[in-house]
Amino acid sequence: MAVTQAVNVLDAGSLLSAFGALGVAVVMFAETGLLVGFFLPGDSLLFTAGLLCAGDSDRSVHLSLWQVLVAAVVGALLGAQTGYWLGRRGGRALLARSRSKKLHEGAERAEQLLERYGHAKAVVLARFVPIVRTVLNPLAGALEVPVRVFTVWQVVGGLVWTIGLTLGGYALGSSVPNVDHYLLPMVALVVLVSLTPIALEARRARARRASEGTSS
User: Fold this and answer.
1) What is the pTM of this model?
2) What single string gives the DSSP state of each residue in the chain?
């Protein structure tokens, strides 16, 4: 009797093996539209999906590039817009109910991003920062960022993020023989790169607090 292996929602390969392109759409929607999705592997999922669209068709997991692209774009755009409208309706109460320290830190960074770069640039940049891309959408709604401004720039950011990472994975998978052998190191590298902005911002925040403490 065959035993179905449990799906690990934190592992891109496991998600793609179980759900294929549909899993991409669901994760994109949850990560960008629902606060509970902040822990999901958005960057690594897109990159891994692109890798699995390239190469031999007889591998255990092989995805269709056009299906992955459509699923990623639709999930990310609908998710961000849903998060925005949830923020408009529920405001900061949605965030206040969460006890996650990471989520609240992400909200603080999202607010700093909005203040520092303005609405348009912040909405685009947030797509490339884990956790922040989850929190910024409802936060933009709560802060009453104009609907038209948010919609236009979340679409721009969503297209660049989803298509760019997916095609990046596809290009690498098409050019490197037996790319499956290097899948884990490459995904780890993508995760490391995606976390770099968070680390840099945390370092700058510590430096600001230290300077403020010294001056006082």
Assistant:
1) 0.77
2) ---PPPP-TT-HHHHHHHHHHHHHHHHHHHHHH-GGGTTS-HHHHHHHHHHHHSS-TTSS----HHHHHHHHHHHHHHHHHHHHHHHHHHTTHHHHT---HHHHHHHHHHHHHHHHHHHHHHHHHHTTSTTHHHHHHHHHHHTT--HHHHHHHHHHHHHHHHHHHHHHHHHHHHHSTTGGGGHHHHHHHHHHHHHHHHHHHHHHHHHHHHHHHHH-
